[in-house]
Amino acid sequence: MKIKGMHHVSAITANAKDNFHFYTEILGMRLVKKTVNQDDTSMYHLFYADETGNPGTDLTFFEIPNAGTTYPGVGSISSTSLRVPNNAALDYWKERFTEHNVDHDDIAVQGERKIIRFRDPEKQRLILVSDEENNGIAGGKVWKHSTVPAEKGIIGLGPAKLTVRKAEPTVDILTKLLTFKQIGSYPSEVTDQPDILVFSTGDGGTGAEVHLEVRKDLPQERPGRGSVHHVAFRVEDKEELTKWKDRLEEIKLPNSGMVERFYFRSLYFRDSNGILFELATDGPGFVTDEEFEHLGESLALPPYLENQRKKIEARIKPLETKRSH
């Protein structure tokens, strides 16, 4: 039983059309799946990733049109990192963000890596992180039709930052239940707050880390548009996921049980800080029901929702995602 690294991060948007424009046209990611939230089919679920949606490259969004403003705080997945190939790519992105009026900070250092913090139009808290020093899990492959050059493009998810009031419950989940180990720390940007702890799993590197921030000075986060719903970690297959389910039941940690998502299988649970974790299998993947060349162009529904297609399509706004070039 081994957690291999990041699988995906799922966040909230209030506007699928604007979200699609930002993540594909500005960030150059590929929409690899346009589907619906299987727990509430009245909302889109959009998956942006590398060329095929390899595990560890997916940033996904639920569209909740009436989602309110996010009030940042503890009990949250407070930033999502996106990997770029090297430090030179950050120079490119700094210019690109200025050109496209993207709210961003200057190039900075986080631990031993160079980064740029930035926000999408809904104030989603994002970080570009350089893979120049990466000796762990390899990144994905930029889609050939990306709006960003392949040598500069986003190649996967970097560390997820969790912000909590008390470290111990989340440290226990990461190190005693899952297979993370603390490998270091770096100073908080906030005066008089503890160092941010760095945890790594699997083969390590940029795509296999969680950063844990303790903040005594913040209220509980009130999520809305621009917030993160959950973070998912990779497990090999269904057999291994079953072992994780058995382990959660053994320690009496409430969980969802095995959930069929068609493109992967999942298992959900929370720690006592309120962080929602998911374990997800590496496969079957997104080319299961669409050809590689046409991923994300049509509304894809798993077989068990196909008989509801007319009803589902009537409840969601049309979203044009076919390539025009």
Automatic annotation (TrEMBL):
Keywords: Dioxygenase, Oxidoreductase
UniProt domain VOC: residue ranges: 5-131, 156-282
Keyword Iron-sulfur among UniProt keywords: no
Keyword Cell inner membrane listed: no
Xref: Gene3D superfamilies: 2,3-Dihydroxybiphenyl 1,2-Dioxygenase, domain 1 (3.10.180.10)
Annotated Pfam families: Glyoxalase (PF00903)
GO molecular function annotations of the record: dioxygenase activity
InterPro entries (UniProt xref): Extradiol_RC_dioxygenase, Glyas_Bleomycin-R_OHBP_Dase, Glyas_Fos-R_dOase_dom, VOC_core
UniProt-recorded name of the protein: Ring-cleaving dioxygenase
